[in-house]
Amino acid sequence: MTERLEDIALAMVADGKGILAADESSGTIKKRFDAIKVESTEENRRDYRELMFRAGDAMKNHISGVILYDETIRQKAADGTPLVDIIKAAGAVPGIKVDAGAKPLAGFPGDTVTEGLDGLRERLAEYYKLGARFAKWRAVIDINEEENVPSATAIDANCHALARYAALCQEAGIVPIVEPEVLMDGAHDIDTCYEVTKVTLLQLFSELYAADVNLAGTILKPNMVIPGKKSGTKASPEQVAEMTLKVFRETVPVAVPGIAFLSGGQSDEEATANLNAMNAAGPLPWKLTFSYGRALQAAPQKAWAGKKDNVTAAQKAFAHRARMNGLAAQGKWSPDLEKQG
Ligand code: 13P
């Protein structure tokens, strides 16, 4: 029997749980490993990811799903158990990144469009067989006001691709995570982030409707509304919560069961504090949780540093971040709890 998309989506945003984004492409994981002076071999990548998937209570209590990369969904643990089976045994749903990355958009310098639709139907059928029940596609929207980035063309092209991807996922029995990431790298202020996020989400949902995507079987993975890194300003968690919830109330239909944020380069604690502030400002019509890559993994990566002897310490570091974000997903986190770790 195939599971209902709606039930998978609800499981992905279950109370106090969120998603571990462990789907770094080969290039990205190499960058992360370079930072801890670990060689990016297939075995090291496997050992590192296996240690998180085996992090016992942290996985069971706080992780609802794991986004995998093509290599990882096919990999076996050191003892021969498929990594997918370890994830399932922890009660989490295996997921898969299916986009082929953001490429320069012809005719629009500074803009990108995410590729990967060709052959996607066949790839999804294979990933379903390998155990994936949700997928991820990331569109990247940069902000550079002086260069007129993003263009309307870039937003339209990316949202159209997201909708075509989402429809193909649902046809295959797979819940699409739709991720239109407005980058926080620019020099823009929080109001500009709000404006660009609003235009992007309006266009995204318009395309999802046009493609007849079932919103109840879809998870949104957005950025938070924050000032750009190069703006030299920071917003308080309360400000971030206010602006981010405002944009969602204006654009995200209540039929969407859950919103799982990317961390996007925020510090670990910022990503947790901001998520907490939004949930503390509830009640909200959607579940608000995390789908963090860096904000869940920076601490365990540092603790691990490629050494077998550090596996327990790395699992502890991962467990702490998973627990803090699990609390934030319920509005129950506080800076004091952070220190206890
Ligand atoms: P970050 O949380 O590191 O932004 O990664 C999440 C993700 O999956 C981006 O596509």
Percent helix, as a range, is 40-55%
CATH homologous superfamily classification: Aldolase class I
Bound molecules: 1,3-dihydroxyacetonephosphate
Extended strand count = 10
Helix-and-strand structural type: alpha/beta
Architecture per CATH nomenclature, i.e. the level-2 architecture: Alpha-Beta Barrel
Number of separate domains: 1
Order of helices and strands: HEHHHEHHEEEHEHEHEHEHEHHH
CATH topology: TIM Barrel
Shape: globular
Describe this structure in words.
It is built from 14 helices and 10 strands. The chain is an alpha/beta fold. The protein has a single domain (5-339), classed as Alpha-Beta Barrel (TIM Barrel), CATH 3.20.20. The protein has helices spanning 5-12, 26-35, 42-53, 56-62, 70-73, 83-89, 120-129, 152-171, 190-210, 237-251, 268-280, 294-304, 311-328, 335-340, and strands at 18-21, 63-68, 93-97, 102-104, 112-114, 134-141, 175-182, 219-220, 258-261, 287-292. The termini are far apart. The strands form 2 sheets. Strands 1-2-3-6-7-8-9-10 form an 8-stranded parallel β-barrel, surrounded by 8 helices. The protein has a two-stranded antiparallel ribbon with strand order 4-5. The structure holds 1,3-dihydroxyacetonephosphate. The site of 1,3-dihydroxyacetonephosphate (13P) has 10 residues, from helix 12.
